[in-house]
Amino acid sequence: MRALKGGPCDPIAPLELPHSLHKFQRVSSGDELNMEGYDTFRGGFWNYFSMGMDAQISYAFHSERKLHPEKFKNQLVNQSTYAKLGCTQGWFCASLFHPSSKNIAQLAKVKIMKKHGQWQELHLPHSIRSIVCLNLPSFSGGLNPWGTPNSNKIRDRDLTPPFVDDGLIEVVGFRDAWHGLILLAPKGHGTRLAQVDKINNNLYSLKFSFYL
């Protein structure tokens, strides 16, 4: 992870980093990853990263839970709070309140690399308004956005069930909140965009929501 020196993230207070990044450390000036003019961090990652509409709701959820932790005592409460926030931010009526110009494909270019492969641009359907990158089978109050691919998907697309220690990042897309509600079904899942070793997100605009 790199942060531009003198930018909005400088200085970064270690204790304010998300819990999953507390083991992150700045690399030394002699490290091969170090780049002039940037603070570069190296460390472990066990979490999810979302961009787009879901990120707005995730951040609102995180802020509310930080202010009132006593209200978030079980998975059902967490999920109902997510749904309420989705209503207040218009995610259930995304086609009305959020034009296609705010779809992920118009706001960012996503590149992926599979194991021992080359960087390639990830095709993002124009209907996708949010993508989630994660390396664990749980987000948004305990839901599994990747699900368990059936035998055909495993054979045709070389997909596997998600595990924390498999070294892979799952990339999942969502159209709107109704699409997200599919996760409540026994075999529900988002749009499986890719399962990769590395991912690179290039944002076209700074007016973009993301949450870690």
**Total count of domains:** 2
Give the beta-strand count.
Answer: 11
Task: State the shape.
Answer: globular
Mean pLDDT: 76
Strand content: 15-25%
Determine the fraction of residues in helical runs and give it as a percent range.
10-25%
Count of DSSP H/I helices: 6
Assembly type of the chains comes to single chain
List the strand order in the largest sheet. Answer: 9-8-7-4-11
SSE run? EEEEHHHHEEEHEHEEE
Through-space gap between termini: 12 Å
Compute the CA-based radius of gyration: 18 Å
Main beta sheet strand tally, sense and closure: 5 strands, antiparallel
Structural class: alpha+beta
List low-confidence stretches: 11-15, 207-212
Describe the protein:
- The chain is an alpha+beta fold and 212 residues long.
- It has 2 domains: 2-42, no CATH class; 48-211, no CATH class.
- It is built from 6 helices and 11 strands.
- The protein has helices at residues 53-67, 75-88, 94-97, 104-107, 151-157, 177-181; strands at residues 2-4, 25-26, 38-42, 48-52, 108-113, 120-121, 130-134, 169-174, 191-196, 198-203, 210-211.
- The strands form 3 sheets. It has a 5-stranded antiparallel β-sheet with strand order 9-8-7-4-11. A 3-stranded antiparallel β-sheet has the order 1-3-2, with no helix packed on it. It has a 3-stranded antiparallel β-sheet with strand order 6-5-10.
- A hairpin with a 6-residue loop joins strand 5 (108-113) and strand 6 (120-121).
- Helix 1 (53-67) crosses helix 2 (75-88).
- The chain is globular, with a radius of gyration of 18 Å.
- The relative contact order is 0.17.
